[in-house]
Amino acid sequence: MEENKEFNIDEALKRLEEINRKLAEEGISLSESLALYKEGVELSAKCKDNLDMIEKELIVLTPEEE
User: Chain-centre distance of CA 56, in angstroms?
Assistant: First the structure.
């Protein structure tokens, strides 16, 4: 995924699925596995950060029940 492009969680989740499929394939090299794993960890962290931000926005927008 490009760094200068706005983060899109749907695209990131699709990419994580692709990475997971590739890592499950037989015959994948160690260096390719490591690169995919690293990309997956980075994407996972970005997804978590994005979801945390959305959760905070929802908390602000949701009125408290008394």
Answer: 18
Q: Is this model's pTM higher than 0.85 or not?
A: no
Task: Please classify residue 40 by burial: count the beta carbons closer than 10 Å to its beta carbon, then call 0-12 exposed, 13-18 middle and 19+ buried.
Answer: middle
pLDDT tens by residue, 40-57: 999 999 999 999 999 999
- 18-35: per-residue pLDDT in tens? 999 999 999 999 999 999
Query: How far separated are the first and last CA of the chain, in Å rounded?
Result: 44
Residues ≥6 apart with Cβ < 8 Å to 56 = none
Q: What tokens were used for 46?
A: 């970005």
